Amino acid sequence: MEKGITTRFNILATIALWAISFVFALTNFEVGSTHESNALIDMYIDSLIVKTTLLLAIWIASTLVLSKLFNEIWNRLFSDIFNVRQINFSESYAFSILMTWALLS
Description:
The protein is mostly helical. It has one domain (7-104). It has four helices and no strands. The protein has helices at 7-27, 40-44, 48-81, 89-104. Helix 1 (7-27) packs parallel to helix 4 and helix 3 packs across helix 4. The longest helix is centred in the middle third of the chain and has 34 residues, at 48-81. The chain is elongated.
């Protein structure tokens, strides 16, 4: 068995975190709440499917950029200062996703 974080693990972990967040959002949704949003996405895009797809694409793109940035910072700075091993992109992605989810929950 391969020891390490793989792309398959990252995909499954991301789907699991999305599922947990979705169930949490469904259980805490207030039905009677009427809220008018002034966000640009709500003003220019009416379709819920298009909004969801656009926000998902933005989330994926920002996650990949943040993971690559964390990977570069870790490999160029932390590994030299603290004498720790370098990490690959999959490990960087997993760490970034889990830390973001933990901090925002």
